[in-house]
Design goal:
46% helix; 11% strand; 215 residues; single chain; binds uracil
């Protein structure tokens, strides 16, 4: 039932041109993963590789996320990944709060309403600001549980793109451990609330086998 509802929403998303962000993008990028998963990961928005392939978190950030998920005993096919905004902003800039609100109220809110996840993980500041509130700070508030505006249990962690930008080895190590512990906390809560659900497949999901360039 959730899958069917998501499929219908995906068809609507495909033809969305409700804001200017659509103009610079090849097309909207939706979500990927298991509709019945107790965990949903929310990133910021598609980058250039995601725009090319039409899949969220498939580029460098997504590859790092997949490694972190594997370490925390989760695979991409058993969770659901999505973004606050669906179209890549020109020049890959960070979307502003108005753009994030406009898009997420039309799409992300509907996805979450269908999915009814037990746990939401906000990847980075843009997701934290939308799911929580704009006064929250990723450095201060990551790793702490809060309720999203929709009433879902949510924990924030650093965005993988942030990890990719850290050049200091010590700082990078510390941030990686923080992410690992946040993912473990999310996994444990999800398994507590959905004990029969398998969050990990035997193999890592190879998104490049599942998606083709769309241009
Ligand atoms: N960064 C995100 O937040 N989401 C993506 O899909 C790609 C990069």
């Amino acid at each position: 039932m959730k899958e069917e509802a998501l499929k219908n929403l995906a068809h609507e998303l495909e033809v969305c041109s409700q804001c200017q962000l659509r103009e610079a993008a090849q097309g909207p990028v939706g979500w990927f993963g298991a509709a019945d998963s107790p965990i949903v990961f929310v990133g910021e928005g598609p980058g250039v590789v995601e725009d090319d392939f039409g899949c969220p978190l498939i580029g460098p950030s997504g590859q790092l996320l997949d490694k972190a998920l594997w370490a925390a005993k989760m695979t991409r096919d058993r969770v659901l990944t999505t973004n606050v905004i669906k179209c890549r902003p020109k020049g890959n800039r960070t979307p502003n709060i108005a753009e994030a609100d406009f898009c997420a109220q039309r799409w992300l809110d509907k996805e979450l309403e269908i999915l009814q996840p037990k746990v939401v993980v906000a990847l980075g500041g843009v997701a934290l600001h939308y799911l929580g509130n704009p006064d929250m700070r990723i450095t201060r508030d990551r790793g702490k549980w809060f309720k999203t505006k929709h009433g879902f249990d949510c924990i924030a962690t650093f965005h993988p793109a942030y990890l990719l930008r850290i050049s200091n080895v010590k700082a990078l190590n510390a941030a990686k451990w923080d992410v690992f512990h946040d993912l473990e906390a999310a996994r444990d809560k999800a398994l507590e609330l959905a004990p029969d659900y398998a969050l990990m497949s035997e193999e890592k999901t190879d998104l490049f086998k599942l998606f083709r360039r769309r241009k």
